[in-house]
Amino acid sequence: MAGRGHDVHVVVPASSRRHGTGFEDYGGQRVTVHRLPSYRWPPHDWLRFVLPWRARTHCTRILDLVKPDVVHFQSAVVIGRAVAIEAERRGIRLIGTNHLMIENVIEHTLLPNALRPLLARLWWADARKTLLRASAVTTPTRRAAEFLMEVGGLENVLAISCGIRVGDYTAGFGEKPERRVLFVGRVTGEKHIDVLLQAMTRLGDIGARLDVAGGGDLLKHLEHQARSLGLANRATFHGYVSDEELRRLYTESSVFAMPSIAELQSIATMEAMASGLPVVAANAMALPHLVHNGENGYLFEPGDADDLANRLRQVLTMPLSERNELGRESLRLVQMHDIDRTLELFERLYRGEPASAVARDSVNEQDRSLDGAPRTGTIQLPRRDDESGTGAQRDPHS
């Protein structure tokens, strides 16, 4: 958004004890970041939070200082809840997006299993109150939107992709020197990387290797598990990697595996698709919207290591021409997730266009024309006149 000429302010918990407001550079763009005083959540390896009873005070100060045209919150808890309440009081246009699945963090609450369903119900009830304040509510995929409407009791949730810069990735359709399976993401419980490790034990006869890129609280545990399963020489845990190293891993891999069961979209899967990779993914949450079974990869029964191994073997042992056909379909399907399309849709919401109008152009991975090709086209963005009535254009606006 900053690259498109907007004055962007981001409000987040401080990543350490140091807090305050300053400029930060992301992707070559400078944005203003308000880092609020925060505290580390001990059961998690990096999660930090703002005290709920202080969040509204912080948001009040920032809103009165910035006087934004629109507020876009990314989750409905703590900062999201606080800024939504204060923005509504000031008559500021409010857009809400849900990126958070309580299932992704509930294991870090230390609550016994018997109480976790109760926590989930309370969380969604509280989130619903915040999301209802917004003029429009979005989430990354149609499956996630349906889930949010069912569980959160909301209506007309828009599916707008998180988006990636498709051109940043390079497809490698030539013969690969090794059969390499790649996983990218947080190394945490909900990703079910242990299932992927178990599947890899069934693929030793074809010399398949596994690369795991990403860090998280289970990194050491899974490294130990890999050794105990006899994968010490066939599984590499890279930890956090640079963008350049990540793109190289995508290009050099043969297939991407995503065993997670709680994906609202999966940026990593889209990056793999933009790299021309076939994908083998769990048939859970939003992954079936990205992986069309038999077209750009295969779905497997969540948690079933044998089924995952069979699907990986199918991709790794097929002729190169067939594997490339899957990869090229990945590359075609991911085009509708290009970041510029996403930004255009959000700009329309920011400028006051009704959600019902934006919905007609929002991402729906299964919305195809009769000939089976994804709908394409350029979205023309309306420009908004200044409220003063002078007719002066008001771009950029915060």
Strand content: 15-25%
The H-and-E topology, N to C, reads as EEEEEHEHEHEHEEHEHEHEHEHEHHHH
**Which structural class is indicated by helix and strand composition?**
alpha/beta
Mean pLDDT: 87
Name the strands of the widest sheet in spatial order. 12-11-10-13-14-15
> What is the H level of CATH, i.e. the homologous superfamily of the largest domain?
Glycogen Phosphorylase B
Distance between the termini: 10 Å
Number of helices: 13
Second CATH tier, the architecture of the largest domain: 3-Layer(aba) Sandwich
Most strands sheet: 6 strands, parallel
CATH topology of the largest domain: Rossmann fold
What's this model, at a glance?
Residues 357-398 are annotated as: Disordered. This protein has helices at 52-66, 79-89, 116-131, 142-152, 193-201, 219-228, 243-252, 267-274, 287-290, 305-317, 320-333, 339-350, 355-359; strands at residues 9-13, 20-26, 29-36, 39-40, 48-49, 70-73, 93-97, 136-139, 158-159, 180-184, 209-213, 235-239, 255-258, 279-282, 297-300. By secondary structure, the chain is an alpha/beta fold.
Please give the structural blueprint.
Blueprint: E1 9-13, E2 20-26, E3 29-36, E4 39-40, E5 48-49, H1 52-66, E6 70-73, H2 79-89, E7 93-97, H3 116-131, E8 136-139, H4 142-152, E9 158-159, E10 180-184, H5 193-201, E11 209-213, H6 219-228, E12 235-239, H7 243-252, E13 255-258, H8 267-274, E14 279-282, H9 287-290, E15 297-300, H10 305-317, H11 320-333, H12 339-350, H13 355-359
Helix pairs in contact: 1-2, 5-10, 8-11
GO molecular function: hexosyltransferase activity
Protein name: D-inositol 3-phosphate glycosyltransferase
Domain Glycosyl transferase family: 177-328
